[in-house]
Amino acid sequence: MIDQKELKALISLIDDEDKSVINHVTEKIVSYGRSIIPFLQEELRETDNPLVRERLQLLLKDMNYDDILSKLKAWVESENQDLLKALWIIASYEYPSLTYESIYKELEQIYYEAWLDFRYDMHPFDQVKVLNSIIFKKLNFKADTQNFHDPENSMINDVLFNRKGNPISLCIIYMLVAKKLKLPVYGVNLPNLFILTYKNSRFQFYINAFNKGLIFSKADIDNYIGQLKIEKKPEYYEPCNNVDIVKRILRNLVVAYTKKGENNKTHDIGQILGVFE
């Protein structure tokens, strides 16, 4: 249980000039764990002291960062490696108050919209056309071609809210909804482009969520790789795992923050990416 009186007393000392006092106060506050973050955020909103504000912001950032590292390490070591959970953890870097439940609820709504028009006796092409109609026409998800490298395009909550994203974020939403419909849809790690494959014992074809769910074939991937003048690799045609997907999202964020000149964030995400190495 949080002792609010003790916490307020500790926060009142956070602008002390003595470094040893600051270190002691910080360690004591951190020892409460993540549960006190909402309390610290409230104190941050109420304070008029610039130094207290600055130190609380730094403390909250450090606590959130440590929590993200801890959660992602646990995710890597877990058996099921739930993709949505990893996306929520990554998004909490920018949005510490974001809840897993809020993201899950949004995806459930998209699934429900698709489920209303979905039939399991359809040909796989027709199943994909239903998903395309719901996601790209009815719900108006689209490719963000104007601000391709915006960090928001890698934050699952922003993509769900703004209805736009980069190739991998749009593919992820598409894939998660498809999985809820029990469709064999998986991510594929192409160079410079993330796509999907519909693959079962009878069919395999590919889906480009960045181009409104365009269906294409293995021959089209052959042509794409030929244009890039690179060696063909099996992973350019077959499903990748959730770890590969999360690593690619983090690499996209490194590029995004670098292009914005936000070097501290570039460093943070680089460190978070190190969890997977």
Structure description:
With 277 residues, the protein is of the alpha+beta class. The chain has 2 domains: 4-77, no CATH class; 83-276, no CATH class. Helices cover 58% and strands 9% of the residues. The protein is built from 12 helices and 6 strands. The strands form 2 sheets. It has a 4-stranded antiparallel β-sheet. Strand 3 and strand 4 form a beta hairpin. Helix 4 runs antiparallel to helix 5 and helix 11 (242-259) runs antiparallel to helix 12. The longest helix is centred in the N-terminal third of the chain and has 28 residues, at 50-77. It is elongated.
Using brief descriptors, characterize the structure shown.
277 residues; alpha+beta; 4-stranded antiparallel beta sheet; two-stranded parallel ribbon; 9% strand
Question: How are the secondary structure elements laid out?
Answer:
Layout: H1 4-11, H2 19-30, H3 37-46, H4 50-77, H5 83-91, H6 100-117, H7 124-138, E1 142-143, H8 156-162, E2 164-165, H9 167-180, E3 185-190, E4 193-199, E5 204-208, E6 214-216, H10 218-228, H11 242-259, H12 263-273
Parallel strand pairs: 1-2
Antiparallel strand pairs: 3-4, 4-5, 5-6
Number of helices: 12
**Secondary structure: number of strands:** 6
Could you list the spans in which at least 5 consecutive residues all have pLDDT below 50?
A: none
Global outline? elongated
Using only C-alpha atoms, the radius of gyration works out to 22 Å
- Count of structural domains: 2
Question: How far apart are the first and last residues' alpha carbons, in Å?
Answer: 37 Å
Average residue-wise pLDDT: 92
Order of helical and strand elements: HHHHHHHEHEHEEEEHHH
Report the biggest beta sheet as strand number plus sense, adding barrel if it closes: 4 strands, antiparallel
Strand portion: 5-15%
Strand order, main sheet: write it out: 3-4-5-6
Structural class: alpha+beta
Which percent bin holds the helix content?
55-70%
